[in-house]
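Why does this matter for the project? Reviewers at the last site visit asked to see concrete outputs rather than summary tables. In response, this paragraph embeds two records directly. Each consists of the residue sequence and, immediately after it, the corresponding structure tokens. Nothing has been edited or filtered.
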Amino acid sequence: MADGLHKLIDEGVPEVVDRLGRWLLYPVFWLTTAILALWFLRTGLVYGALVIGPPLVLLLSARFHGLGRVSTALLVIAGLAALVPTFFLGKYKGAEDGHTGLILVGFLVFLIWGAAYPAMLDKFDERFQLSRHPADPRRKLAKEERNELALLRVLLVKIVMATVAMLVVDATVVVILSLIALLLRNHWSAAVVGVACLVESVAELDGLNLVFRFDPMEIAAGLLAALMWWDAVKNPLWDRRVRPGVGR
């Protein structure tokens, strides 16, 4: 009986957590995508389509072709489109009502979308891998069976989202460190940026003095960015010397 309980905990609990995560991820992602799309489409149909279109095309390409097979050009275009939410920065800084109201809601929606998007990419790529083996009853693949290039690209998307989040709150030092870490692509530089995200979200240098502040937007952005950089610290693929291979 003890063995059966142990097996239930080892196998059943992760399965429940995974299903719950999927159940929450899809509606949260599509809801925030719809809100962002409406937000940007209000400024112009072409502008809105250019902002929200490339990330969705990349998502669908991952689902039907696999993220490891997606062209580098599409990845770059989707990454450039992700920079457009700096639009929020101008609105956020120039808002007469400070950090409240519509700008605050829009920024929080963007943060949720930025956290959910890489997870959706990962799920869609996994669904593509499973669709190539319809007889396989599993809902989830082990990491070693995944396309490592696809997993690396998911991680890169996370880092881009982390950098954009800090750019939106005008954390210039962290953005510069992030660009350096992207060039170096090793674990210690990722760790440095993760710590910097946490520090700059609550403190800044005013001359020779360290000034602490409490800004919900900056703290939320710093936590999100730090978590994404922590994923890079833990992931062996983040090391530039590692050559990603292909799973199933």
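We now turn to the second protein, recorded in exactly the same manner.
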Amino acid sequence: MPGLLLLAPRETTEFETLRGPVRLRKYGGTPGHEFVRAAVRAGNGRGRAALVTLRPAAYPYAGAWLAALAEHAPATTDYRNPDMAPASVRVVAKMTRNHANGVPRQSDGSVGWSVPGASARVWPDGRLTVISAAGVELSARLEGSQWDTWAVAAVVDAALRLLCAPEARHVTRTSEPGGWSRAADRWEDWAGGPVGVKSGWMYDGSSVAACSCGWRVTVPSRLGARGAAAAHLREVGAAAPC
């Protein structure tokens, strides 16, 4: 963000977002120890939804980072921790290679993952940190139980997209087909209402191909989904799918 380097200690500035202005204030006057702190408001403008600390290396990304936090901030906030689990955030996040269950946790309850050029970590109390391979850090403390799994994943995705290597901005994945299931799981509408069909087994081989950029398509087979993901990466000029 232009101007943060020029701020004097205790001097403030404002950055305008779709949810209103965010006020930033610089602390520390010793070179190498200065930082800027910003409070992102909830949608109603009356409570703090996120507390952000920015070091000098992160100043160029400050505007986009604050805008992403403001965009996904809840309408209201309280003084409790977010209503999410770090493992769930990792599964929901788009910027990650592997969406399998059974995510390993650290002893402090945090969960981390990485994409080429950047890594993320989320804690149960709402802290999150994204660090690039060059050491640039975007971090925040999300405040309020209204922050849910999807909103937390969205802001982590935004930070990873800002700091990752160019080839990682399109991280593709394909879903596991449903496979065989009893037809009784399927319901059809008859004259008297929905009726369960119990005539045998059915096979669902369809698979979803998705990308961290938001592209998504459903095809009849997983092989076809992998082919669609590869074609998408060729179209955007990215590397081979993960």
